[in-house]
Amino acid sequence: MDSDVASPSSRASSPELEEAGSPELLPGAPRPQQGSGEPGPGGGTPRAGREEQAGEQQQAQAQRLKVNSRERRRMQDLNQALDGLREVMPYSQGPAVRKLSKIATVLLARNYILTLSSSLQDMRRLLSELHAGPRSHPLPQGRPMPPAAAAAGYLGFRPAPRETPRTAAGPLGPVYRHYSGLPCLCSLCQPVPAPSCLRASK
DNA sequence: TAGGCCATCTGGTCCT
DNA sequence: AGGACCAGATGGCCTA
Predict the structure, then answer these.
(1) C1' nearest to CA of A12: which nucleotide?
(2) pTM higher than 0.85 for the full model?
């Protein structure tokens, strides 16, 4: 909830755009990059030609601003969606905890879903076994104990407690922590192919 | 100070 | 033609 959903940006890095006024072409953002320099050096056109050119430039500029604005909005929507995802993720949230990075959020969400699916399957199997034979032992002898408790933990998941038994300084960074009593969701403990950008390289 | 993360701009591509 | 999506580039902020 404390996320930056409402604010235009979560980081101070974003050059505060004047929402209503002139959003584009920020004062401190002269983008000299990419050879998008003036297209026409002015091929000897007289006054009329120059005015026409200026008009075209203005039009192109306006079009650019529009595209930029749309793109900005698109990215903000994406970030909102990510914030929504963070809100339901099992990691401690609060002012003292840094926000999960985007990539960590996505990876964690995937593992979370996988774990929930697995737990759900176990629960269903348990239920069907219970219904099948009332007198029989709910758990076959040789079978490894299903993580029923863990599943229950997930199904009735509460915001993680303060205590953090051990930390994972892995791909998910210092933000994510392992919690006692809950199967780990991080990519260290789950077979999730970590993208190259996350592989420990230093 | 280096590296991580991020927001933004921009050009390209694809789709409607 | 216009919009959505994507990826590369750039520069700012923050932390170890």
Answers:
(1) C13
(2) no
